[in-house]
Amino acid sequence: MVRIDRVVTRGGDAGETSLGDGARVGKETARIEAIGAVDEANAALGVLRCLVAGDPATDAALSRLQNDLFDVGADLAVPGDAGKRLRVTDAPVVRLEAEIAAMASGLAPLASFVLPGGTPAAAQAHVARTLLRRAERRIAALRADGVNPAVLRLLNRASDHLFVLSRLLNERAAGDVLWVPGANR
Predict the structure, then answer these.
(1) For residue 52, what pLDDT is reported?
(2) What burial class does residue 91 get, using C-beta atoms within 10 Å of its C-beta: 0-12 exposed, 13-18 middle, 19+ buried?
(3) Furthest-apart CA pair in the chain: how many Å?
(4) For the CA atoms of the chain, what is the radius of gyration?
């Protein structure tokens, strides 16, 4: 279990931070960029949870996803094969696929691409989705350094989950905001 006795350590004052295996690396490294991108997406999910506070089932799903993203950060923080360290598995991917299927079952097929917007909660789901896609790109750039492939599958499915959730949130209100190709020519 994690124990945090001090927040101010001064250990990062010179632009370095520690990985989970104790190695010191620059804060500008690709691995730290990837971990930071996951953290940004998780923060956006926190805002989304505030916007869906009256919907316990959606809040619970987002809470599970936030915990999954912390697991991703822990996985990324220990490069290579670290024995008993926390590693992401495909169990959350399977769970997300089931949740996506359940949410999508009542939605009409799309006739166009969806624009981010609609309700504040749906718009925030799109913000979180795009941040997850950025995190996915940052992590994909680390593949040569031995990234757990389940991490990429999880982020891919999580962004799909948020896309379908945004549609569901808009469906409960005024519906999808659709792209109209060439509308402003």
Answers:
(1) 97
(2) exposed
(3) 59
(4) 18
Q: CA nearest 66: which of 88, 100, 90, 41?
A: 41
For helices 30-51 and 120-140, what crossing angle results, to 10°? 160
Cβ-contact 31, 88 below 8 angstroms? no
Domain 17-171: give its CATH code: 1.20.1200.10
Q: Please identify which residue in the block is written with the tokens 């991703």.
A: 72
Phi, psi of 138 (to 5 degrees): -65, -40
List pLDDT tens digits, range 102-127.
999 999 999 899 999 999 999 999 99
What share of residues in the chain are helix, strand, coil (percent, to 5)? Answer: 55, 5, 40
List C-alpha distances in Å: 79 to 73, 130, 151. Answer: 11, 25, 13
Domain positions in the chain: 17-171
Joined together, the tokens standing for residue 69 give 């993203």
177: phi then psi, degrees, rounded to nearest 5: -95, 110
